[in-house]
Amino acid sequence: MLNTVFRNALCVFALAFAGSAFAQASQPAGQTAPPASSSISPSTDAKIYSEDPRLFVGLKSAAIVPPGGTGPGVLSGFEIGIAAKQGFGFGVNIFGGVNNPAAPTLGLPRSGFAFGGTADIRYFLQTVGPLSVYPILSVGFLTAQTSSIKNTVIPLVNPGVGARVQILDELYTSLEVGASNFHIPYMAVSLGWSPKNE
């Protein structure tokens, strides 16, 4: 099970980097790279990786539907990281929940509480105005206490896609959908603060 999960994660990373390399190779022939310089200003260096990077801090809530379980589960917490209009972004998520349904495909019975965390990488693609869409891949863990009063810890690898809207200059909201460990559907909604990068 774990070997399959990590093989799938490696495939996702490989596809992401292959797509990035293809996009660079498909630039018009007339476009050339800027001349090398002995010193690059911080603002120029930042644009190599992302456009208009911003700190973000927000609340996040996710609904999951484990196959073979008994109803949906809800996990809530907070997120913090770096977002951009276009380019790479990163985030850290901490979440928890109570009375979670069983997840038989993970060997996880119904639990009184669950707690976990993930770190993610995402690539923002600006579309129209304040809207950006992005593929996302997060890696982390989930721990839960079962009816036998024993803690169970499982690894998480969660691919997905998201849409983010910057509102009122310093507020944002986002929606993400994906498949936890490549087979458990989830949907997450976030709302938070994201100030301009001065």
What is the topological layout?
Elements: H1 2-25, H2 42-49, E1 50-51, E2 54-64, E3 73-83, E4 86-100, E5 111-126, E6 131-146, E7 151-167, E8 171-180, E9 184-193
Antiparallel strand pairs: 1-4, 2-3, 2-9, 3-4, 4-5, 5-6, 6-7, 7-8, 8-9
Short description:
By secondary structure, the protein is α+β, with helices and mostly antiparallel strands. Helix content is 16%, strand content 55%. It has two helices and nine strands; from the N terminus they run H-H-E-E-E-E-E-E-E-E-E.
What this model shows, in words?
The chain has 198 residues and is of the alpha+beta class. The chain has a single domain, classed as Porin (Beta Barrel). Helix content is 16%, strand content 55%. Strands 2-3-4-5-6-7-8-9 form an eight-stranded antiparallel β-barrel.
Task: Please give the alpha-carbon distance between the first and last residues.
Answer: 46 Å
Number of strands: 9
The main sheet orders its strands as: 2-3-4-5-6-7-8-9
Low-confidence stretches: 12-46
Rg value: 19 Å
Q: How much is the average pLDDT? A: 80
Question: Which structural class is indicated by helix and strand composition?
Answer: alpha+beta
One letter per element, helices H and strands E, the order comes to HHEEEEEEEEE
CATH architecture name: Beta Barrel
CATH secondary-structure class? Mainly Beta
Strand coverage percent: over 45%
Discrete helix count: 2
What number of domains?
A: 1
